[in-house]
């Protein structure tokens, strides 16, 4: 019985500590040289062969919102893929936030086909794509193909 | 016991009722709630880990990951029930282990085990969903009512 009590107390402490711990942002500074694989925290591929300025603008807008935790974006000549994470308590308004962001991006980039999602899987996939653009120098066709794949994934419903 | 019901009792019965009330063991409600919270939370944490696993290694999104996660959780609880582990967890946690979807797997398998001696068809077959049947029935019915309310609200309420 005593053992159990201790176990319960220990469990409670671990949960409280774990719950109150604040995650540190994953920020690594590369010391030197471009040969090192950079993990960037900008959310866009700065050194990609395709011009990523629209993606940068989109990320800047999405990140400026209060209800967004993080955002990543990729663009090709015709498509703009934006993935973001909504803050935990704001997830109650998920649909509304998604619609607002999608509409605003459409207004900002009328020439692009906008694909936006708040899904975590899409976020991971987009981040992977950003890394590939940055470090493996993916070209337009390859990127477009991957974006199409992600788009199909984002349209899946339960 | 409700007050109106108690008034109908004979004096002897009322006396017995008071006698019994003074002597029955008190239920440790707060302690039970705490245990249920911890174990229920732990089960949900496992479920979250499984859904992240499916999302990370397979092509499931947050929208679609629910189905395989639920299936896996029910499967795990069925295996644990078969080995007699889930019963112990349930004894400790109470509602914490019965309310999550794992409780459903436990309800199905424990009924199957209980009626195994009566044969496979009339024993296991007819008694397997003895407990889980009500879950399915009222789950479906509740879903129907909610869908009805939503339809009415969106069609005529203009929500």
TrEMBL record, chain A:
It comes from the Bacteria. Pfam families: Spore_YhcN_YlaJ. InterPro entries: Spore_lipoprot_YhcN/YlaJ-like (IPR019076). This is Sporulation protein.
UniProtKB/TrEMBL annotation, chain B:
The keyword Transmembrane helix applies. The keyword DNA damage does not apply. NCBIfam families: spore_V_AC. This is Stage V sporulation protein AC. The lineage of its organism: Bacteria, Bacillati, Bacillota, Bacilli, Bacillales. The chain crosses the membrane at residues 36-57, 69-86, 93-113, 133-153. Keywords: Membrane, Transmembrane, Transmembrane helix. It comes from Parageobacillus caldoxylosilyticus NBRC 107762.
């Amino acid at each position: 019985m005593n053992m159990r009590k201790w176990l319960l107390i220990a469990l409670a402490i671990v949960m409280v500590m774990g719950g109150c711990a604040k995650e540190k942002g994953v920020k690594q500074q590369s010391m030197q040289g471009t040969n090192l694989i950079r993990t960037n925290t900008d959310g866009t591929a700065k050194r990609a062969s395709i011009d990523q300025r629209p993606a940068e603008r989109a990320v800047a807008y999405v990140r400026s919102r209060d209800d967004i935790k993080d955002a990543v974006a990729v663009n090709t000549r015709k498509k703009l893929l934006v993935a973001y994470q909504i803050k935990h308590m704001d997830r109650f308004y998920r649909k509304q936030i998604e619609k607002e962001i999608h509409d605003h991006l459409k207004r900002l980039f009328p020439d692009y086909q906008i694909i936006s999602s708040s899904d975590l899987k899409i976020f991971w996939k987009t981040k992977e794509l950003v890394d590939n653009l940055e470090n493996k120098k993916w070209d337009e066709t390859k990127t477009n193909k991957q974006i199409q794949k992600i788009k199909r994934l984002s349209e899946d419903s339960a | 016991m409700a007050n109106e019901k108690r008034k109908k009792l004979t004096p002897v019965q009322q006396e017995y009722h008071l006698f019994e009330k003074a002597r029955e063991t008190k239920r440790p409600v707060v302690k039970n709630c705490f245990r249920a919270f911890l174990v229920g939370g732990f089960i949900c944490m496992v479920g979250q880990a499984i859904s992240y696993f499916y999302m990370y290694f397979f092509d499931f999104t947050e929208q679609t990951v629910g189905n395989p996660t639920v299936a896996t959780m029910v499967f795990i609880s069925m295996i644990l029930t078969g080995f007699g582990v889930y019963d112990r967890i349930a004894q400790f946690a109470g509602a914490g282990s019965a309310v999550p979807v794992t409780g459903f797997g436990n309800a199905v398998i424990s009924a199957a085990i209980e009626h195994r001696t009566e044969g496979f068809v009339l024993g296991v077959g007819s008694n397997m969903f003895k407990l889980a049947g009500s879950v399915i029935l009222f789950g479906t019915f509740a879903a129907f009512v909610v869908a009805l309310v939503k339809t009415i609200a969106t069609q005529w309420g203009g929500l």
